[in-house]
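pipeline stage [seq->struct] | target=HAT C-terminal dimerisation domain-containing protein | organism=Dreissena polymorpha | residues=67
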Amino acid sequence: MPSSTASVERLFSLMNNLCTTNRNRLSQDRLTALMMLCREGCQQLSDDQTSKIVEIFKKMKERDIAL
């Protein structure tokens, strides 16, 4: 058992920063991918992990945004 819960608390904090009231419809796959990118950074991820993340975002539908 870890002696500290700091690493878990950091992950929950990151998740709360990503999944806000404006972005509350993120799927679990997208949220996980964003958390990996934010936590690890692109340079730290393997090519396979990066490819999986890119595929998740490729599947997203395009949105019409009114500015």
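stage status: PASS
auto-comment: The chain has a mean pLDDT of 80. The CA atoms of residues 30 and 60 lie 9 Å apart.
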